[in-house]
Amino acid sequence: MAFGPILPRSFYSRPAIDVARDLPGKVLVHGRAAGIIVETEAYLAAGDQAAHSARGVTPRTEVIFGPPGHAYVYFIYGMYECLNLVCEPAGTAGCVLIRALEPVVGLDLMSRRRPAARKIEDLASGPAKLAMALGITRAHNGADVTRGKLVVREALRPMAFEIEAAPRIGIKQAVELPLRFLIRGNRFVSGARSDTSRTRSRGNQRLNPAGSRS
Question: Which domains does the chain carry?
Answer without folding.
Answer: 9-208 (3.10.300.10)
